[in-house]
Amino acid sequence: MDLFQRVDFISHAGIPMSWKIECDAISNDEWIAIAKMIMEYQTEPFRAAIGIPRGGAPLGFALNAYATDNPDHKFLICDDVYTTGTSFREFLEQEGHAREDVFCWTAFARKPTTDGVRALFTMPIVTN
After folding, report:
1. Are 108 and 118 in contact (CB under 8 A)?
2. Is the model's pLDDT at 127 over the cut of 90?
3. Contact 63, 74 (CB under 8 A)
4. Which residues of 26-41 are buried (b: 16+ CB within 10 A; e: fewer)?
C-alpha cells in the first residue's frame, strides 16, 4: 500500500480530492518515530494523547508514551491528516474540549493549519 495515492475521493469535510495520504500504510514503528519527531516541538507536558477516530488513533497511541497522566496538564488531541480542520472542530465540540484547553497536532496537513493545530509536515500553497 502506498502512502501517497492518486485517487479520487471525498474528504471528511465533503470536499472532492484527487490524491490521498493513506496513513494505513504507516507502520507502528513509523508512528512511534513520528511521535518522537512531534515531541521535539511539543515542549509543554500533556496529560494524555487522544487520537481522533479512526485515523488519529495510531498517532495518539504512540504519543501516549510521552503523556504525564497529570490531571493538571492539558490533553493532546491528534489526527493523521488535516485538510480543513473539520475533524478537529467536530471532535473538540463532541468531547466538550475548548481549543485553549488542549494541544492539537497532526502528522500531515494538506494546507497550512488554523485554530492552533500544529502539523509536523505541511503541503505548500501553490500560487500561479
Report:
1. no
2. no
3. no
4. beeeebbebbeebeee
What is the DSSP code string of 70-110? Answer: -TTSPEEEEEEEESSSHHHHHHHHHHT--GGGEEEEEEEES
DSSP code of residue 23: G
**Residues shown for the chain:** 128
Predicted structure pTM score:
0.93
CA-closest candidate to residue 77, choices 62, 96, 91 = 91
State pLDDT tens for residues 64-83: 999 999 999 999 999 999 99
Based on the number of CB atoms within 10 Å of its own CB, is 75 exposed (0-12), middle (13-18) or buried (19 or more)?
middle
Spell out the long-range contacts of 95-100 with Cβ–Cβ below 8 A and sequence spacing 24 or more. Answer: 95/50
